[in-house]
Amino acid sequence: MTKKFDLFVIGGGSGGVRAARVASSKGMKVGLAEGWSLGGTCVNRGCVPKKLYSYSSHFSEDIELMSSFGWSVSKKKFSWNKLVQNKKKEIKRLSQIYNSLLANSGVEIFSGFAEFLDSESIKIGKKTIQSKNFLIAVGTQPNRLNFKASKEIVTSDEAFDLKSLPKKILILGGGYIAVEFAAIFNGLGVNTTICIRREKVLKGFDDDVVDQLTIQMKEKGIKIISNDFPQEISKKNNLFDVKYKRNKSEKFNLVMEATGRSPNIERLNLEKIKIKLSKKSSIIVNDYFETSCKNIYAIGDVIDRIQLTPVAIAEAMILVNNLTKKKKEKFKYNNVPSAVFSNPNYAYVGFTETEAKKKYKKIEIFTSSFRPLRFSLSKKKEKVFIKLIVNSQNNKVIGLHYLGEHAAEIVQGFSVAIVNGLTKKAFDKTIGIHPTSAEEVVTMKK
Ligand code: NDP
User: Fold this and answer.
1) What is the percentage of the chain residues whose pLDDT exceeds 90?
2) Are 7 and 30 in contact, with CB atoms under 8 Å apart?
């Protein structure tokens, strides 16, 4: 039997689900297909489990800190299995919420992978579905490198559900995922090494903050092998044997690849609709998320603009509004706040110093580095590092970078000021809340 829809969404991640719900609330007949679990990467294999594991990994340091405040904990024991099981329960609960949100808003859900037959019809299993419009929101999957032991090398997809915690891990890559997982494994007591082909981790982030973070990661025991990469990885007697291009070879219990992500497009049969793809196989869209095929749209990680959940959700809202309004709106990609849940956390909004120097004639930089009060009774060396970037011509704050506990919570609040073009004078006029670490942001002096 053929079903007809006004909008059919392929992919039940954050962007797809939001688009489907909003479109349905506007009176469209909407269907959605998801081949795995509703919630997509963010809920099932990304942001949510990552943040839960990040919380878990911080307790090892918190226990040390407790003793500086007079508390003693007699037994320090961690169960990986309990963390994995509790995470699974929570993810299942969230996925069910997504399911009922969609169902309650009148969206028809199809379980399975969609394949295009032509620009107005798809196939899911044995069902054929027709729709006036399609939205592709299928996200991405981890890239894989080619080593002898590739089958046994894990990615972030598998790392959340390892049967047991390894003693010693090598993480390949130095982006968001590598740095976040290094913090998680290190905090859980795993001997952790990152290996990157360049000099520094976190390409494109502010250099000074990256340097400060690197120092603190090393102080916490994470090893970083720079300007090198494995030439060969094989597995013998349950151990990965890693031969580097420059360094000596080394053995690990586990190797994880975190070397970027690629669009999940293989199953879509895009050849049938001749959609234009970029060199990296992401779907090319214009300012209104229109692909080269008139009635087919794409949003989220698969279009590779900014691969973040809140961006996909914002794109979904704009797209659906555009479908129902005469005057189309564009999404502004500047000033998207973001955080790396490293240890310590790093969050930012606006430009890096390098970007600001390229864009503006004259900028002012304010920095502050200090040991927060919470650590003052302990031997913990961790410092907060803050950088504020100001456009000298109009005094507007154009960048805030914060390295330290709760960085993401703090920067989220200050983002409102920066997104709305507030000046350094406006920051200075604001009274700090004392004693906090965030008060430094409004008291920065040269
Ligand atoms: P990133 O693009 O952030 O980092 C990829 C890393 O892998 C880089 O260090 C890169 O090195 C390296 N790399 C890529 N290809 C190779 C190769 N062939 N050989 C060796 N090294 C290689 O990707 P991630 O996988 O970490 O994350 C993907 C996206 O997911 C991010 O861009 C982000 O948008 C999103 N994300 C967001 C999070 C958050 O908001 N907290 C958390 C996790 C993910 P080089 O720098 O040399 O290119």
Assistant:
1) 96
2) yes
| Chain centre distance of CA 433 | 30
Task: Give tens-digit pLDDT for 337-369.
Answer: 999 999 999 999 999 999 999 999 999 999 999
Specify the ligand 1 atom closest to the Cα of 178. 26
310 CA → ligand 1 middle, Å: 18
Q: Where are the alpha helices (DSSP H) in 360-430?
A: 407-419, 424-429
User: Residue 201 CA: which ligand 1 atom is closest?
Assistant: 9
Give the pocket of ligand 1 (CB within 6 Å). Answer: 145, 173-178, 180, 196-198, 203, 229, 258-261, 307-308, 338-341
Which residue's CA is the nearest one to ligand 1's atom 16?
259
Which residue has a Cα nearest atom 11 of ligand 1? 173
Q: How far is CA 412 from CA 52, 372, 415, in A?
A: 19, 20, 5
Q: What is the mean pLDDT of the chain?
A: 96
* CA pair distance 83, 52, nearest whole angstrom: 9
431 Cβ contact partners less than 8 Å away, ≥ 6 residues apart = 442
Q: Which sequence positions are flagged as catalytic? A: 434
Q: Please give the model's pTM, rounded to 2 decimal places.
A: 0.97
CA–CA separation, 110 and 431 (whole Å): 53
